[in-house]
Amino acid sequence: MILSPNTTIIKQNKKTQKGVLIMALFLSNLGAAGIILTIAVMLASGFLLTRITKRLHLPNVTGYIIAGVIIGPWCLNLVPSQYIGQMDFITDLALAFIAFGVGKYFKLSSLKANGKKMVILTLFESLTAGIFITIVMLIMGLSLSFSLLLGAIGCATAPASTIMTIRQYKAKGPFVDTILQVVALDDAVSLIAFSVCAAFVQASSSNGSVTVSQIAFPVLFNLLALALGGLSGVVLSRLIHKRRSKDHSLVLACVTIMGVAGICTSLNVSPLLACMASGAAYINASGNKHLFKQLNQFTPPLLVMFFVLSGMRLSIPSLAAAGVIGIVYFLVRIAGKYTGSALGAAVTHASPEIRRYFGLALIPQAGVSIGLAVLGQRMLPAESGQLLSTIILSSGLLYEMVGPACAKASIKLSGSVPGKAAVDKAAAGKAAAGKAAAEKAAAGKAAAEKAAAEKAAAEKVIAGSSSASGPDIAKADGVEQPVHKAGAAALEEQTRKKAPDTGNDTNDTVSAQQVRPRHAVV
């Protein structure tokens, strides 16, 4: 029997589905061991997908999210659904470590050095995008709580893609310096805006009306969480000193971050602000950045699990429902970032390049925004929360795909990347300088060799003159020395005639040998 290609593909798909189903059932019946194997599957899938996204010049975050979609319930269903619900702690831990890392950008000395311009520019580009999104969502008939949370999440920017693009093209200049300073503060503004909006949403969730006390209490709790984070950062700076080992320093940092996050979560307060305050207090009290480098080496597996888990929670059927809303959010956020950066540049009297092209470098969105979407999903009704998470995850994929290209365009249009002529000129100048340096070195080497030869000749002359003694030797040295046997014999004969005849041939020979020039060649 001959099978058609379609029949063969169907049979292969059925075999694949059967194998995946067996794998899922195997994991679901293992209990705690199944969770451990599930984590291994998540890490492995995230790593494998980054091999593909790397070839496509896409960020790793994109690969992690796609890996979660593939192994999630809407594709291969490789991970049992009950395990997905038991991994909320991964989200809380990842967000706590991310927020602590954001705190290092709030060093007071850096803020004073950069001045108010960077803060004003960050506030304009971040909050303008959030306001645009909130207003448009309200016009489309969505609830106030949904619109506020989506607008607050839209303030965030993913700095990783932009920074990688800058490094790839070796861009430099004031435009690039401004980008690096603004994206560092952008996530902090988003965290603060989200915490304020979350307090309002939690206050209004009990009933339709909102009173002053309902808003005041969540704000008070957030302020207390902020104070707790600041105090924990100061205590951590006292516990970690120069004599403390790196291992114990990492342990104390994990205890502090997890403790603050756990206390805030138990009080239904977002741990983001508290952990960010902890990181800011630590860097200002100690001035030590080595701990943040340690955490950057410690947290990658946790962050991979977080992004893969976010992809597993992406609801594919909700994409159709979020189609129009998601597209509108995608476009409005870009417009808000571009408009806000232009307004901020005008207020701070920035350069024309920043006014025109700065907004293009702020398009990527992932990382903190995905974590905020997970927190926002918990605060909203099931349907609205799922819609919020789907919009952020799906648009995040699009932003990570088009963001690096937009960042590349912004740094090139601003003149931060030297053109081919400038690169060729710099290369030619470098080659000419290298050639001149080589010629100079060769000339110096020749002069040194000549000086050494002259010095050796002078030393030889001095040594020869000092070894000569007696008037006969000095006189012999002044006479041209014979170099042939015939000349030596004639000289010997002449000496014999001048000497007195004693009749002793032996003595004659000895006398001749005694007066024979020292340098004669026999």
- N-to-C span: 109 Å
Task: Tell me what portion of residues adopts beta-strand conformation.
Answer: under 5%
Binned, the helix content reads over 70%
Poorly predicted sequence stretches spanning 5 or more consecutive residues: 1-13, 420-427, 473-484, 501-522
Multimerization status? single chain
Overall shape: it is elongated
The strand count comes to 0
Which architecture of the largest domain does the CATH hierarchy give at level 2? Up-down Bundle
How would a crystallographer describe the biggest sheet? Answer: none
User: CATH top level of the largest domain?
Assistant: Mainly Alpha
Structural class: mainly alpha
Q: Within the CATH hierarchy, at the fold level, what is the topology of the largest domain?
A: Na+/H+ antiporter like fold
What is the ordering of alpha helices and beta strands? HHHHHHHHHHHHHHHHHHHHHHHH
In total, the number of domains comes to 2
Q: What is the averaged pLDDT score? A: 77
Q: Please compute the radius of gyration using only Cα atoms.
A: 41 Å
SS field, number of helical segments: 24
Transmembrane segments: 20-49, 61-83, 89-106, 118-140, 146-166, 178-203, 215-238, 250-283, 303-332, 357-375
GO molecular function: antiporter activity
Membrane topology: Multi-pass membrane protein
Keywords: Membrane, Transmembrane, Transmembrane helix
Question: What does this protein structure show overall?
Answer:
The chain has 522 residues and is an all-alpha fold. Mean pLDDT is 77; it is low at 1-13, 420-427, 473-484 and 501-522. The N and C termini lie far apart (109 Å). It folds into two domains: 87-423, Na+/H+ antiporter like fold (Up-down Bundle); 473-522, no CATH class. It has helices at 5-28, 32-55, 60-71, 81-85, 88-102, 108-114, 116-139, 144-154, 159-169, 174-204, 212-239, 246-266, 271-286, 290-298, 300-312, 316-321, 323-347, 352-357, 368-379, 382-413, 420-467, 471-478, 485-498, 505-515. Helix 2 (32-55) packs across helix 15 (300-312), helix 19 (368-379) runs antiparallel to helix 20 and helix 23 crosses helix 24 (505-515). Helices cover 79% and strands 0% of the residues. The relative contact order is 0.11.
